[in-house]
Design brief:
The complex is a heterodimer.
Chain A: H1 10-22, H2 28-39, H3 45-58, E1 61-67, E2 76-82, H4 84-101, H5 106-113
Antiparallel strand pairs in A: 1-2
Helix pairs in contact in A: 1-2, 1-3
Chain B: H1 8-17, H2 20-38, H3 44-68, H4 72-87, H5 89-118, H6 126-129, H7 133-140
Helix pairs in contact in B: 1-2, 1-3, 2-3
The chains are: A alpha+beta, B mainly alpha.
Chain lengths: ~120, ~140
């Protein structure tokens, strides 16, 4: 990481927040379920892995592959964890949103546009 | 009754598009969700439709993953080859010696052929300067 936080897209924020919610148990299926229940969004498994991969490349997430311990469940699962950079990027995105929302009254903004 | 397996064609499609680094993990996740949550609760056609929909909506993401790792298959093949060679050092030495001799002999032959046949002679007009058969016969007389 260069130390400079890059801009987080909306879906990237959703995924990072879902990882933060799940903690150590953040894997692809769990994240899909978490996003569906909290954000009401159905996300394809390909889309979520592509985003997770991009966030790992940015240094915002750390990925680890774990094989099941029991013989009947020997498949590899990939788990994700938030890094310090990821947490900082989320905070920066939240602060930016708070600054942008401050002082806005949407009813007034809509009225002002009426001819 | 055990739940039906995922539709084979859809599974193969996703397998073919995903890079090797991710395909086992992603497909195992999808299969697990299918067999644990979807297949027991839906009809076979409904479960298959769910799987197909998952695969079709995953194709753009899978393509993005593959675009990030265009060399993943090559890297996997290389690491597999290195593991095999380490497991059988005699074969590894024989393979390396064969390659060394083959490449060395080919290089030597090409160096000689290049110097004698391909490069022009180090003189201004090599064809004119080259003695003809008649001039050699005449000089012998």
């Amino acid at each position: 990481m260069s130390g400079r936080l890059s801009y987080l897209g909306e879906f990237e924020q959703v995924v990072l927040l879902a990882v933060a919610h799940l903690g150590d148990a953040a894997s692809g299926p769990g994240l899909r379920a978490e996003i569906a229940s909290r954000a009401g969004r159905e996300v394809s498994i390909g889309a979520i892995y592509a985003t997770l991969d991009r966030l790992v490349a940015k240094g915002y997430l750390r990925a680890r592959d774990e094989a099941g311990r029991e013989k009947a469940d020997a498949r590899v699962r990939r788990f994700f964890a938030l890094t310090r950079e990821g947490a900082a990027a989320l905070e920066a995105a939240r602060d930016m949103q708070v600054r942008m929302w401050r002082g806005i009254d949407l009813r007034k903004a809509v009225k002002a546009r009426k001819p | 009754m055990s739940p039906s397996p995922p539709p084979r064609l859809a599974r193969r499609l996703l397998y073919a598009l995903l890079p090797s680094l991710d395909r086992d993990v992603v497909i195992a996740d999808l299969d697990e969700e299918f067999s644990h949550s979807i297949a027991p609760r839906r009809s076979r056609a409904g479960a298959n439709l769910w799987y197909w929909r998952q695969v079709m909506t995953s194709l753009p993401g899978a393509a993005r993953l593959r675009a990030r790792f265009p060399w993943s298959d090559f890297v996997r093949d290389m690491s597999h080859g290195v593991r095999l060679l380490r497991r059988n050092p005699t074969f590894a030495i024989a393979a390396v010696a064969t390659l060394t001799l083959g490449i060395g002999a080919t290089s030597a032959v090409f160096t000689v052929a290049n110097a004698m046949l391909l490069r022009p002679l180090p003189m201004p007009s090599p064809i004119v300067s080259w003695p003809s058969w008649n001039s050699i016969v005449r000089a012998r007389r």
